[in-house]
Hints:
- This is Lipid A deacylase LpxR family protein.
- Keywords: Signal.
- InterPro entries: OMP/PagP_B-barrel.
- Residues 1-47 form the signal peptide.
- The chain is mainly β.
- The chain has two domains: 47-188, Porin, CATH 2.40.160.20; 201-340, Beta Barrel (Porin), CATH 2.40.160.20.
- It has two helices and 16 strands.
- It has helices at residues 2-22, 31-42, and strands at residues 48-59, 64-77, 81-89, 96-108, 114-133, 137-156, 160-169, 177-188, 205-216, 223-234, 239-251, 254-268, 273-286, 295-308, 313-323, 330-340.
- The longest helix is centred in the first third of the chain and has 21 residues, at 2-22.
Amino acid sequence: MKQQKGRAACGAIRVCCPFMSLCLSRRMRFHRFAAASLWLCATASFAQNVSLLAGQLQVPDKDESSFAAALSYAHPAGDYAALSLTYLNEGHPLDHHRDGVSGQLWLRSMQRPRGLSFGVGVGPYYYFDTARTAAAGYRNDHGWAPMYSVQANWHFGNHWFAQVQANRVVPRGKDATTQVLVGAGFRFDGVPGNKLHLNGPSSDDTLTLSGGQTIVNSFNSERARASSVEYRRAAGPYVDWTVTWLKEGAAPATRRSGVAGQVWLIRSLSTHVELGMGAGPYLAYDLPVLAAERQRLAGLVSIVGRYHFDRRWVGQLSWNRVVTSYHHDADVLLLGVGAAF
Length: 341
């Protein structure tokens, strides 16, 4: 029993390590956040929450408002702490389309099967901002900001809960925003979070074919058909790695394809459902942007939901953000089917 607990703790720590490197920057000192996150992962309980929220965003310094939306995964650690990963869309204030990914530490009241609970969270937020410019029309800015949150939940006693959350994002040199969001969530109990559908982690070799749409991160949101071929292998009970050939299609602003390698945090929400987040380099070939037709190194940040129909076939839905240094970011939405072998 002690050996099993030790292996579970080590597996959980291996999960957090790739994503802690994503959530740290030289300019922001989040060493305490990293250490606390590792402790949370090592002592985490089985209950896992997924919530979907929507509401209003305010830019107080400019008296502007817009919509906001968020998809969040929370993993409790004991009775009073949790670690969350969140995708946040900050809507469309004037001359800015900003969204990003955040990791937060939470202190919470006791989470009971029925009734009210509260929480406060803080952590780093890596944002992608499409900003309007006079010269080029737009640019894609990236950066780090702290995100502060307060939350109230009403648990109905049947795994479902209602949620109200307020966030404050304060990037240096850019507009701070406040979001008030309302939504619902579902609590997954009794699942350790490792790959329950596997005989062993090394057996998870999956080849997935996907198709979908590319949306260029500009103010015109140019679109094109996209496709991908992904090879996925489990590196452990909580970690996958993938190699993906991605074709973004022929949008007016870009015609790009290439190969990406990513490391993934994967959590099983049930014996059929997985939720994951991945990041890694993307070696892309972009014809219109590069007169010399050279290769360009970009980044790829992704969120995936996977449904295992049986031990061989899996459905996969993913959101992928191509992160460039030459102002040609794009979203790639893909739906596919994979076969394990």
